[in-house]
Amino acid sequence: MTNSTAPYLHKVTVRTHPDIALIKYWGKKNKALRLPANGSLSVVLEALHTTTTVEFDLSLTADQVQIGGQVEAGEVSRASQHLQRVRELAKDKGLLNQDIFARVVSQNNFPTSTGLSSSSSGFAALSIAASRALGLELTERELSILARQGSGSACRCVCAGFVEWLDGNNSENSYAVSIAPPDLLPLRDLVVIVSEDKKQLSSSAGHDLAESSPFFVTRQERIGHKLVTLKQALLARDFGRLGELAEAEALEFHSILLTSQPSVLLLYPGTVAVMHLVHRLRKAGTPVFFTINTGFNIHVLTLAEHEQHVRQQLEQLSEVQQVIVSGVAGGPEMLNEHLF
Ligand code: DP6
To answer: Which of 72, 205, 294, 298 is the most buried if burial means most Cβ atoms within 10 Å?
Structure first.
C-alpha cells in the first residue's frame, strides 16, 4: 500500500531552536508525564537549530529514526514512544484507525549530547512535524503539552522568544507560553564549546538525582520568588539584574548536581576558565554573565554592543574550541525542502 490511499498523510519538515534556561527545570514531580518540580524560564536560540522531516508510510512495519546520520537504539526507542503519543492523538481525533509507522530524519547544526539541549529542539520538532504529518492541527498549547512528554524542555521550544513553562499539576496545565518577543532585549548568547565529548549523564537520569541533594528542598522553597524576580527584570529590560539572577541560578543548579548522591561533576577546566573570564570582564565593566546546563559547554550572555569584545576575549582562551553567537529566535519554521 502507498500513501496515495491515505491522502491526509503528508511529508513535513520543520526547523526548531533549542533554548537555554535562565531558571532551570530540575527534578520532576511526575516522571511519566514529565511534570516539573518547578516552573522555568528560557530563551530560544536563533543560531542553533534542529531540522526534522517526518513521513508516515503505510508500507513500514516499524518506525525508522535517523538522527545526525546515526541510528541509535535508545534514541529510536524514545522517538518511537513519542510517535506513538502522536498516533494516539490522531486516533482520538478520528484521523487514524490503525498504527502507521513513520520515517524520521533529524539533523542539528550544533554538537549533540554535549549539554546544548538537543532534546529540547529535537522533541519540539518531532511533535510539530509528526502531528502535522498525520493531519493534526494542534494549537501552540497542545503542541507544548505533547512536546513536554517527549522531553520536558521541549515544551518551551514550540514557542518564540522568551518563554515560561508554567509547571502545573496535571498534564493539561503544564505547558509553556511566550512571555516576550525576541526583540525585547538585544541579548546575545555566546555559546562556548570547550569540548565535544559526549556528556556522562543524560538530563533524564540527572532529574532522578535532584532530590538526593540536601539543598534541593531549599531550592524549591525559593524558586517561586526567583522566577517572579527574574521575570520582572526581563520585562523591565534590566539586563544587569537578569544576568545576575541567571548566573546565580546556574551556580545553584550546579551546586545541586555536585551535592547529589552520587555527586555529578560536569564542569571541565575549560568551563571554569570561561567562568573566571566572565568575572574578570564584569569587574572591568562589561555586562556579561554565564549560565550552564547539564554539560561542560557554557553560555555567555551579554548585550549586542559588547558581543565583539566578549567574543575576542573568549577566543583567546586556549580551552575554547568554538564560539557560536546567537540572538533570540522566533518560533518554529515550516520548511519546503525535506531531508529525504
Ligand atoms: C538542565 O528537558 O532534557 O537543561 O524531560 O528528562 O528530557 P527530560 O529533561 P530535559 O532537562 C533539561 C534540564 C536543564 C534545564 C532546563 O533546560 O530547564
So the answer is: 298
